[in-house]
């Protein structure tokens, strides 16, 4: 078949490659090019254990204090609040134990084999060199801070995550970069890292083109819909048609999804990172700094600190406060590292109100598919999502329960 994949982040590129390997003629469409957005700016961790949503019990009680605390990792552009409120109401409704349990079980099925999925995707391509397998660590400044996170670790244990807990002193012997910053460190096993996420996605896209795939750098302006199915894409370069169309446009997916009748409550979570270029030394493992909810990751030639949540829409310029917070926190956890300069970046994470990505057919005929909404785990879940979509288009049923991710749960709302 002729298939169009809209969006050239990790989800779209993965989908395009798996469809190409199945023998389809695939065109990959993106307004900027492969790996330019969140697929470039993420923390680079293949986080198999990221199965706890932001919406945990007690969030409604904690959130106001976080918004007014300059050292908390939650920000809001107040002028955006009126537009945000309908989403926020739906979002906070999921801050309960039943939803956390559903989310953890569903996402564990999608993410548990992330390293193997990346290795299969990148096998025999130049992208394979960017993948490593290592622990993903969580650092706690005090035993009390670790104890306060017991709920999340219990939920992770329930879905089979393997981890151990060591003292900060014991961890220091293995990874001295952090000094005596942490009292407790949790080491999550069977995780991985991408040493340069943007270059990795670009290398995968180059492989797709080398194998005969088509890449169109153009913006999608509209779609034609008849009887609930897409009949054409309108782009800045003209009209495109195909037998199947996959929408993997990340935070820019909402308008098209709603036009297809997939009325998903959806927002952009603005994420930030800073990079310390040419550092004097490198940490060994990616580390989630629990106090600031940001990740420190060793990358090719730099250390990246990525995290923070800001609600402010797709159009507003970056805020200074998240960058300054990251700078202060990095200086606190890596006090002895020097570097040449700091690079700053802001991008957008696609956030459905229930935090579950949409993966599957949008219509009963299977003419179009959604593959977006991965929030904080797009890099982790991208290759498997692409493989699942390719299987569906090929008429094969995925070997996992896809009902939590079914876009059709929003049709008719």
Write a structural description:
With 413 residues, this protein is α/β, with parallel strands linked by helices. The chain has one domain: 3-Layer(bba) Sandwich (FAD/NAD(P)-binding domain), CATH 3.50.50. Helices cover 32% and strands 29% of the residues. It is built from 13 helices and 19 strands. The strands form three sheets. Strands 3, 4, 5, 6, 7, 13, 14, 15, 16 and 17 form a ten-stranded mixed β-sheet that branches. The longest helix is centred in the C-terminal third of the chain and has 16 residues, at 378-393. 48% of the residues are buried.
Structural class: alpha/beta
- Helical proportion, percent range: 25-40%
N/C terminus separation = 32 Å
Reported CATH architecture? 3-Layer(bba) Sandwich
Number of helices: 13
- Spans of at least 5 consecutive residues with low confidence: none
Can you count the beta strands? 19
Major sheet summary line: 10 strands, mixed
**Whole-angstrom Rg:** 21 Å
Task: Work out the strand percent.
Answer: 25-35%
Mean pLDDT: 95
Number of domains: 1
CATH topology type: FAD/NAD(P)-binding domain
Task: List the defining traits of the structure above.
29% strand, FAD/NAD(P)-binding domain, alpha/beta, EC 1.4.99.-, 413 residues, ten-stranded mixed β-sheet, 13 helices, oxidoreductase activity
Helix-strand blueprint:
Blueprint: E1 2-6, H1 10-21, E2 25-30, H2 38-41, E3 45-46, H3 59-67, E4 74-76, H4 81-92, H5 97-111, H6 114-122, E5 131-140, H7 143-148, H8 150-158, E6 163-167, H9 168-174, E7 184-194, H10 197-210, E8 214-217, E9 220-226, E10 229-235, E11 238-240, E12 244-247, H11 254-259, E13 266-277, E14 287-289, E15 294-299, E16 302-311, H12 320-333, E17 341-352, E18 358-361, E19 368-372, H13 378-393
Parallel strand pairs: 1-2, 1-12, 2-8, 4-16, 5-14, 12-19
Antiparallel strand pairs: 3-7, 5-7, 6-7, 9-10, 10-11, 13-16, 13-17, 14-15, 15-16, 18-19
Helix pairs in contact: 1-10, 1-13, 6-13
EC number: 1.4.99.-
Keywords: Oxidoreductase
Domain FAD dependent oxidoreductase: 2-392
């Amino acid at each position: 078949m002729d298939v169009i994949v809209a969006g050239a982040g990790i989800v779209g590129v993965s989908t395009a490659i798996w469809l190409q390997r199945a023998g389809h003629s695939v065109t990959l469409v993106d307004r900027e090019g492969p790996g330019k957005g969140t697929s470039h700016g993420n923390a680079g961790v293949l986080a198999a254990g990221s199965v706890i949503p932001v919406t945990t019990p007690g969030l409604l009680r904690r959130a106001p204090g976080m918004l007014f605390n300059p050292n908390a990792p939650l920000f809001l552009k107040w002028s955006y609040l009126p537009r945000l409120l309908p989403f926020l109401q739906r979002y906070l409704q999921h801050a309960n134990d039943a939803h956390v349990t559903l989310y953890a079980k569903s996402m564990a099925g999608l993410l548990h084999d992330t390293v193997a999925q990346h290795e299969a995707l990148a096998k025999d391509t130049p992208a394979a060199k960017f993948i490593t397998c290592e622990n993903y660590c969580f650092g706690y400044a005090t035993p009390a801070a670790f104890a306060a996170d017991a709920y999340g670790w219990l939920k992770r244990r329930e879905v089979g995550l393997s981890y151990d807990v060591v003292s900060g002193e014991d961890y220091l012997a293995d990874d001295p970069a952090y000094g005596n910053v942490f009292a407790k460190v949790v080491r999550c096993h069977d995780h991985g890292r991408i040493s340069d996420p943007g270059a990795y996605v670009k290398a995968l896209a180059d492989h797709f083109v080398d194998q005969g795939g088509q890449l169109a750098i153009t913006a999608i302006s509209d779609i034609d819909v008849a009887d609930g199915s897409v009949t054409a894409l309108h782009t800045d370069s003209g009209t495109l048609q195909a037998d199947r169309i996959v929408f993997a446009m990340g935070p820019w997916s909402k308008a098209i999804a709603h036009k297809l009748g997939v009325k998903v409550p959806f927002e952009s979570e603005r994420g930030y990172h800073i990079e310390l270029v040419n550092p004097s030394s490198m940490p060994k493992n990616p580390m989630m700094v629990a106090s600031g909810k940001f990740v420190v990751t060793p990358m090719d030639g730099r250390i990246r600190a990525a995290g923070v949540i800001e609600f402010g829409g797709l159009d507003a310029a970056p805020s200074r406060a998240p960058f300054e917070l990251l700078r202060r926190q990095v200086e606190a956890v890596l006090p002895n590292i020097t570097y040449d300069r700091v690079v700053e970046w802001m991008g957008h994470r696609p956030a459905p109100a229930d935090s579950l990505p949409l993966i599957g057919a949008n219509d009963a005929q299977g003419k179009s598919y959604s593959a977006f909404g991965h929030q904080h785990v797009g890099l982790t879940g991208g290759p498997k999502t692409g493989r699942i979509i390719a299987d569906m288009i090929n008429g094969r049923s995925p070997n996992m329960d896809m009902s939590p991710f079914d876009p059709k749960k929003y049709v008719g709302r």
